[in-house]
Write a structure and sequence with these properties.
Elements lengths: L1 H13 L2 E2 H8 L3 H13 L3 E4 L2 E4 L1 H8 L1
Antiparallel strand pairs: 1-3, 2-3
Length: about 60
């Protein structure tokens, strides 16, 4: 599962993405992807504005670990 979390972070590090783009690029179920995004937003690793998800500075630092 950690590999999938890393993959979402890597995709968001490239550029902001919509939920649908992330779903297509990760092959995660809608439910799982919602949980991942909610986790990232709750811990300030990403922001969600309508359907657009962006990585925060904290998310970029997490990706460097």
């Amino acid at each position: 599962m950690l590999e999938k979390l890393d993959r979402v972070l890597e995709l968001l590090a490239e550029r902001e993405r919509t939920f649908e783009e992330l779903k297509a690029e990760t092959s995660l179920s809608e439910e799982t992807l919602n949980l991942v995004i909610d986790f990232f937003v709750a811990h300030d690793f990403a922001t969600k504005d309508n359907n657009l998800i962006r990585l925060t500075d904290s998310g970029r630092k997490l990706l460097e670990l």
